Amino acid sequence: MKKLAAGNWKMNGTAAALAEVEALLAAHPAPACEMLLCPPATLIAQMAQAARGSALMVGGQDCHPKASGAHTGDISAAMLKDAGASHVILGHSERRADHGETDALVRAKAEAVIGAGLMAVVCIGETEAERDGGQTLTVIGGQLDGSVPAGATAATLVVAYEPVWAIGTGRTPTLTEIGEVHAFLRDRLRGLVGGEADGVRLLYGGSVKPSNAAEIFAVPHVDGALVGGASLKAADFGAIVAALSA
Ligand code: PGA
Fold it and tell me: Domain spans of the chain?
């Protein structure tokens, strides 16, 4: 399977930041891995335009489960697609924490994304208290069961394991801990989507940077990364793309 380097710009970036996209594409015109950037919704159309004909795919960071209607401020999967998105991140821990998103809502959103013909990047991860309490596998197993739509396939689903305590902190789990979680997720996914589980990309996310990317990508069942802070600069994200392409 082709590995996936996915960047999540979160609430960062105006049109001036598209210079980073030009620099990224100039440095990595044909990487061996897939490359995805998820900018704020305001930049999706412009980034898709800048990425036209290149190896870069563009995605959204969230969407509404419904296709249209009276939902002020929300965006539907079809709208993201219309703007040029091919993927949508769903259930990021910041959405779960800031907006009270539940597994059921994340699954409804993922169903909407897949229904619109896009790929769902479903995020799960334990808090520090849950890790310290020995609850990691129980928590992420429950999130996976509750968030992944029935009938998802390797062509419609990506799963990102992001320990909440590793996001934006510079801290990461040990390679052994990452390996334990990813092997667990592969196995658990088999119970949910059968043989498709072997082709679903399992991304690790949380303080991935150029200096730790190669060792994390060498862990079995790590099929790429979801990168926050280090995806904002072409040089950093490019180094991660290069590590995944090695
Ligand atoms: P980070 O964020 O790389 O800045 O830790 C990861 C994420 O939230 O996707």
Answer: 4-245
